[in-house]
Design goal:
Keywords: Coiled coil, Membrane, Transmembrane, Transmembrane helix
Organism: Kingella oralis ATCC 51147
Pfam family, one: BSH_RND
Radius of gyration: 56 Å
Strand content: 15-25%
Number of strands: 14
InterPro entries: Beta-barrel_RND_2, MdtA-like_BSH, MFP
CATH architecture of the largest domain: Orthogonal Bundle
Protein name: Auxiliary transport protein, membrane fusion protein (MFP) family protein
Number of domains: 3
CATH class of the largest domain: Mainly Alpha
Helix content: 25-40%
Largest sheet: 6 strands, antiparallel, barrel
Length: 372
């Protein structure tokens, strides 16, 4: 029995050749364009730069109600220690940066030459006192001589009176009653008495002049004593100045003087810095309109990492800094350029703040003054 002719693989014919179909791409995920990020970054950086510039220059809205300057420095009373007399340094009693109190000995200069000057001045004073005592003795002697001369005048005047009476008596009698020799003798006696009186008067005048001279000599001796006393006082002062004392309490700077060094009057030996501190802020004149005494201020110190201290405006300079300079700008020339001047403002610190003792004169500072 014959079987039907069945194909060996019945599905083979039904399969058709597959035509490749194009792949459909998946939808791409949205991404922002790269240049947009760059634009946003530039805008952000610009905005930050503007904000920083406004803050740095204290422009509105940051600078409203306050005045700022970084031209400010800590100040203090730096006192230079110098000798008033010269000589060799015998002792240096302090070291660099020591704390000292007012009146504390710092340096000793060899006092021997100044002790000798004191002794010399004392001898000069003693000599003037001896001269004054001599004038007193001279005056007493002149008074005694004057008294004797006065007595001599009285005696000479009495002798003259007797001689004149005798001469008048002889003239009253006749020439026959008295011899010529008696007449001549009487006349001679009158002349001698007159001469004796004149001599006594002259001696008396000399004695009176001697009295006057002793008075003048006494005044000169008294002036000499005053001068000698002044020289002695100066010598003692110079001797006292051989020890140099601290003019104020504070802290020393570097001690530049050494033992055995020859110093002269005015030589800078060291400096004393008292503990008082303040700040001088040099503010532009265009910012001074609202600055007044008593306003609060904040002071940031560069040397202390920007640590801020509170204070108040204490004083305002009566003139700009240029007015105190030795060489002033000549604004009368044709090359004039207007420049904002600066005015010094003194700021004192509020008491009781921590680290105030760390402030040193010369430190740089930044100052903000609250004007509203």
């Amino acid at each position: 029995m014959s079987q039907p002719n069945t194909p060996e693989h019945p599905d083979t014919e039904s399969q058709k050749t597959a035509v490749p179909q194009p792949e459909t791409p998946e939808p791409a995920q949205w991404q922002p364009e790269k240049h947009r990020f760059g634009s946003i970054g530039i805008l952000a950086a610009s905005a930050i730069g503007v904000v920083l510039a406004l803050y740095a220059f204290r422009l509105p809205p940051f600078g409203m109600g306050e005045v700022y300057t970084n031209n400010a420095y800590v100040r203090g009373s730096v006192t230079t220690v110098s000798p008033r007399v010269g000589g060799y340094v015998q002792k240096v009693l302090v070291r660099d940066f020591d704390n000292v109190k007012a009146g504390q000995p710092l340096v000793e200069i060899d006092p021997a030459p100044y002790r000798a000057k004191v002794a010399q001045a004392e001898a000069g004073l003693a000599g003037q006192q001896a001269a004054l005592n001599k004038t007193a003795q001279d005056k007493a002697s002149a008074l005694a001589v004057s008294k004797a001369n006065q007595a001599a005048i009285d005696n000479a005047r009495a002798q003259l009176d007797r001689a004149r009476r005798e001469w008048q008596r002889i003239q009253a009698v006749s020439t026959d009653a008295v011899s010529q020799s008696s007449r001549d003798a009487a006349q001679t006696a009158v002349k001698q008495a007159e001469a004796g009186l004149k001599q006594a008067q002259e001696q008396y005048a000399v004695a009176q002049q001697n009295i006057i001279n002793t008075g003048v000599g006494r005044e000169g001796a008294q002036a000499g004593i005053a001068n000698a006393q002044a020289l002695l006082d100066l010598a003692k002062q110079d001797l006292g100045h051989t020890t140099i004392y601290a003019p104020a309490s504070g802290k020393l700077g570097e001690v530049s003087v050494k033992q055995g060094q020859l110093v002269s009057a005015g030589t800078q030996l060291m400096s004393v810095v008292p503990p008082e501190r303040w700040v001088i802020a040099n503010i532009k004149e265009t910012d001074m309109a609202n600055v007044k005494i008593g306003q609060s201020a904040s002071v940031s110190i560069d040397a202390l990492g920007g640590k801020a201290f509170s204070g108040k405006v204490a004083e305002i300079s009566p003139a700009t800094a240029s007015e105190f300079s030795l060489i002033k700008a000549d604004s009368g020339t044709g090359n004039f350029v207007k420049i904002a001047q600066r005015i010094a403002v003194k700021i004192v610190f509020d008491a009781g703040q921590q680290d105030l003792e760390r402030l040193a004169p010369g430190m740089s500072a930044e100052v903000n003054i609250a004007t509203k």
